[in-house]
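2024-03-11 09:14:02 INFO queue: dequeued item DNA-binding LacI/PurR family transcriptional regulator, len=340
2024-03-11 09:14:02 INFO validating residues
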Amino acid sequence: MSVPGGRPTLEDVAARAGVSRATVSRVINDSPRVSPEARDQVAAAVRDLGYVPNRAARALVTRRTGAVALVLSEPENKFFDDPFFASTVRIVSQHLSAGDSQMVLLMVHRPDDHARIARYLAAGHVDGALVLAPHRDDPLPEAVRELPLPVVFGGRPWIPEHGLHLVDHDNVGGGRQATEHLLSLGRRGVVTVAGPQDEYAGLERLQGWREATGVDDAATALRAEPGGFTEQGGERAMAALLARVPDLDAVFVANDLMAKGALRALRAAGRRVPRDVAVVGFDDQPAIAPHTDPPLTTIRQDPALRTVHMVELMRRLIAGERVAPGREILPVELVRRDSA
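2024-03-11 09:14:37 INFO prediction written
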């Protein structure tokens, strides 16, 4: 039932519930200073009248906007090419909506966008910021850590971690597990198509490969080639490794998108997978790993799990909970398919 003549007001709800306007306001703003009976009466009146709280007015009282920023310091083409980012945006939006919050997507297109985004966040347009995969030279992490709003990082930023809230997967352990699997197959010429070394995910997966192989810096320079987390980069890196290490018999590729390109380079060179060269990727992207030729053995990380942990942590911080800062490391696992 709705109020004749227009949208129901706070006063209409109060009159229907038989309580004061202040009581209705406290119920809508989830104040604990309301009796269960009054809360039930107001809830029934809200349902009967179809009352929808005015967000702008509510923000003046609660000092909350009902919006959370998702900040991506990635070029637009990488965002659309890599399924990881698209799935992350979708999951963030879904989980924020379930909690009656709105996602605001902020992307870096040009170098001066960093300052623009920092100004936007500082202006109070959002209640918090989720910041993904910052690069080494990205000034945003340092800027947002100084802002008076909750910030949760997805991935490790290139600034001191003291006082930060981070959620990440076990990149070092995943790189080590992938390489140990290749070694367990009797492969000895294990090279790696590494991720970009200005991102901690790329750096740490390379570290895992190094720990498993025990190689020194000179061997790393020979047997590791960065691929930029792109399909084309993976293809170029694999071709370079084939030229430098012709007797290679296995490759750990630091993400599935690069692995797709690496498989293409191996086919072009006449190398059979897995007979001549065994291949392990990282991510277990459902749109890639099961559909390569052959299907890709890979390290599974769950972007949905990381995203849910980030959103839940953000909700607690916005609610004013005292959450100790630190890095939460989520587990990864090997998924065996035909490539290794």
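2024-03-11 09:14:37 INFO annotate: Residues 181 and 248 are 16 Å apart (CA to CA).
2024-03-11 09:14:38 INFO item closed
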